[in-house]
User: What shape does this take?
Amino acid sequence: MDPIRKLGVAIIGAGFWGRNHARNLKELSETHLIAVCDKDEAKANAVADLFGVDAYTDSSKMLKRRDVEAVTICTWSTNLAAEATKALKAEKHVLVEKPMANNVKEARKIIELAKRQHRYLMVGFLMRFIPSVQRIKQAVEKGEIGSVVYATARRVSQWPERIGDMGVVKDLAIHDIDITRFLFNDEPVEVYAKAGNFRHKKFEDHAQILVTFKGKKTAFIEANWLTPYKIRKLTVTGSEAIMTLDYITQEITLETAGQTLAPRYEVKEPLKLELQHFANSIMNGREPVTTGLDGLKALQIAEAALKSARTDKAVRLKPL
Amino acid sequence: MDPIRKLGVAIIGAGFWGRNHARNLKELSETHLIAVCDKDEAKANAVADLFGVDAYTDSSKMLKRRDVEAVTICTWSTNLAAEATKALKAEKHVLVEKPMANNVKEARKIIELAKRQHRYLMVGFLMRFIPSVQRIKQAVEKGEIGSVVYATARRVSQWPERIGDMGVVKDLAIHDIDITRFLFNDEPVEVYAKAGNFRHKKFEDHAQILVTFKGKKTAFIEANWLTPYKIRKLTVTGSEAIMTLDYITQEITLETAGQTLAPRYEVKEPLKLELQHFANSIMNGREPVTTGLDGLKALQIAEAALKSARTDKAVRLKPL
Amino acid sequence: MDPIRKLGVAIIGAGFWGRNHARNLKELSETHLIAVCDKDEAKANAVADLFGVDAYTDSSKMLKRRDVEAVTICTWSTNLAAEATKALKAEKHVLVEKPMANNVKEARKIIELAKRQHRYLMVGFLMRFIPSVQRIKQAVEKGEIGSVVYATARRVSQWPERIGDMGVVKDLAIHDIDITRFLFNDEPVEVYAKAGNFRHKKFEDHAQILVTFKGKKTAFIEANWLTPYKIRKLTVTGSEAIMTLDYITQEITLETAGQTLAPRYEVKEPLKLELQHFANSIMNGREPVTTGLDGLKALQIAEAALKSARTDKAVRLKPL
Amino acid sequence: MDPIRKLGVAIIGAGFWGRNHARNLKELSETHLIAVCDKDEAKANAVADLFGVDAYTDSSKMLKRRDVEAVTICTWSTNLAAEATKALKAEKHVLVEKPMANNVKEARKIIELAKRQHRYLMVGFLMRFIPSVQRIKQAVEKGEIGSVVYATARRVSQWPERIGDMGVVKDLAIHDIDITRFLFNDEPVEVYAKAGNFRHKKFEDHAQILVTFKGKKTAFIEANWLTPYKIRKLTVTGSEAIMTLDYITQEITLETAGQTLAPRYEVKEPLKLELQHFANSIMNGREPVTTGLDGLKALQIAEAALKSARTDKAVRLKPL
Assistant: This one.
């Protein structure tokens, strides 16, 4: 990798999350932020002005630029797939926010398109880039917690200010679906879930999901938009130790029979690490770690959970 | 109730737990401890000596005493039903430790016997007597947490020194089965569970159970003997607030959008409160709050969980 | 030491604390509880009945018994010295509760009397017997926290139900005076303190004390009866690590640059360990670890603190 | 106040802290960031480029600009007074970082100069702008904690990467000196302190300070650069309640006899609030809340603490 080479990047979607992308892409030494695009002209201009880059309201136009080598897509969930498709067709590398697509079928098409276009497709499973998550992964691999027995994840929030076209399973639980696949290094075989909507008119606003992996390991995932404040927690129980993570403070503990140990980490912004990984992967010609297939599998499990909740039955997962 | 009247009580089972019964029955002003019985003579004598009461190795003999009006039964789980039966036949009031019997069938017989004998039968669901549990119950009833959405319970321990003839579902999870029935004031309709045995040769040593109540409320219960140290926690999530309880410290929190509130309670020994309730119920001619039927229902749900884990299917519960 | 030999012990003072002494002396295999004495006959009888021992209202009478080899004294603070004197004159070994005497002068007399009578005199600095305190002592000695820089101690409570004839300095702070002497293995050279009485008519009900040891190490001690609930905490700051202790839960942490480590200890009742040490010391002919001199020094420092608070000046301590 | 009016601001000192000033002055709607100055040209350019403003290496030159109405000074502590003097002479309003000057004498001169120049002088006591500190102030004023008895403050850190020309008293403890004056709404009358240097060659690297206010209220302040990681805590003990603050997480608790209450606040960047207050004060012609006199008084108390530590005596403070 040439040390002076910088990846030319543009952003599609200039909302709260797009603005975070912009700040990080501006600060990273690996990337050169070229432009931002949003259908809402005021939003596009605001972010473009703050960081001194070009503004677009039509992504097709922006994608014509040669200096834009890669795009990050942070639009509303329901538009992610359409924008990813456009960007891949324009031969850009793509980092698409989770859940990547509206459904498994759409996700599959994007993966195939990326393959045909010989472009990298990364799905924004941000959580994997938290250093403490890497620490848990390492502990699991090294057997520091003995054999993994199960994990419980809690991702709950108060009612969101703006509610999109998706329920909590695809919006929140999908993170924990991905993280448990990652930590267990294993694929789920069965999903049983309960879900309901207290306030949301169309979609589920709370769900409890029990995912069973090969070899009987399980993950219990709670997600809702009803809890009075934000909680993001993970517990991994092994035969010898328990690890806990607070995603918000990034604090972890390793609890054994004799002690509780809380390593002190410098808190790092996972988005910065994710974008850095995306840029380095492309410039080094390596597949990013959170692939389109990871996105697809997470969506499949999310859909199985929704089906289980509708039918009151456990749903067996077919291998993809 | 006559203030000087004391209930004459004897204890069957002089192990660790029986000794606790003895100390409390000695200290309570409502009870007069008369005797303890254990097949192991040394154990019976040790407890009897410490508290200055009579020792027996044969419960049938002890049950012949007229001054013994009631017995508390703290033997091994597999003997509970047999001893309860003997005591009821001898026309004693009975407090039997959970899980009360080996199975639903046995439990049903004991309940019927108590009815025929016109004696009170109480099942030792100790957790209900913790003042903080009462505080949560009250909060739920008054709507302080809005509508109940779900509860999660975690009752995990290191490998027990002596392991009985039962797995974690009937030994540990049964407490949380009872507590969620109590707090939700509702009956489960469906149970889905996963369980396994890492170290135990015969019985499950870890289980994850998702219980669905009428109206879609759920309870997720984790129980194991694998965790490196003892954890006993409960979280009840409502539409407006979350309550948490640590059974060990008896600390609770009420978390709303604006604050976390932790009431300060004097820690009380739940066993003392339970035994006091048992004595007062009998002397006042009122049914104790944790009835034989509560024991029976908890057993039914525990058995459904075990069946679900065996069959990989959700099990519907028939009304008892 | 003969394994069957048990020390014959009697208790002077049958209040809340005397009752705890009785329970532990009954349970310990090293001691044989013979009698309890209290001027208040009802109290003496209540404790005596509970544990099946003799009751006295006149300590002189009880001290005549040959089988009483040692006494523990848990009367009101102002009577401690008088009862210790009687007991030593009767040739009993003595465990006297802190603060041992009303003042340095009285304390000195008791120490001399014990020497003349060839009897052991132990002062009840309970805190030293907490296993976690021993763990901190060990860490300090082994240099696990680098060089000790200072300690801060917080021993605060709500207004006591019954208030004795002493302020917070001699009642509460004296524990931390002793503990910092013990942990630092060093003697104070200067004391500066502020104290006042918000509610107490006669004595100080809050005090902040800064004690300077040889080599500039300091200890800051807060004590009061104003705080709405009980807090008992200690922090020891070293050049490489910080240790914290919660005396109530007995939890400790060792905080270094890289991590916080919380060893898990079995909670033990310090009073049991203290009484066991007292009995073993006597039966083995060894001086107990918390001597009369420790009591005297703690009193001297407490008195210096009170003098400093009165005079608004730092008080230099003369070597005893 | 004209809503479109923006205050023209420049920054002197483009180190870590100057960069934070720049980001906030850029983001605030009340300010227009014009230029940054640093003797180190690379630093000046780096910050200027990031935010699209002019760079200077000579503050005199920058101060000639008419559009610069106010400056914020974030240089090394030893240069603060010199730069503040220059800026005031150039008729700029000044926000100078604490400790404002090297000593009381210098501080006094700056205050007089500001008065003669009819310019506002604000001292950067950042901590006052934390919303939770305001909440504690409010609680104290409303009597929510009863009568204030004392406060303890702990501001400790690991060894700093770059060490300036000042010890912990003027660098760290000065914050808590200011905060306790602010919260108690009272002036200290006596200071007693111990300090020492474990590693620092010239200045104290640890100090324990007991400050006595009128009416016997006290504040105990711990400050050091020895502690293995950063701790910033405050406890205010009242006759009815205790309040605690963690400056890092901005979490507070209000502990009463019956409960612990932890209000949930949105974490806000105190620097942004401080700079906003500075700009609004100037534009509205009002004195900022943390005045030159506050800076002077804090310095006086800090110097008294250092004198006490040198002389082993309590130092009485003369009214300024």
Q: What stands out?
A: The mean pLDDT of chain B is 94. DSSP finds nine helices and 15 strands in chain B. Chain B touches chain C through six residues (CB under 8 Å). Residues 129 and 274 of chain B are 6 Å apart (CA to CA).
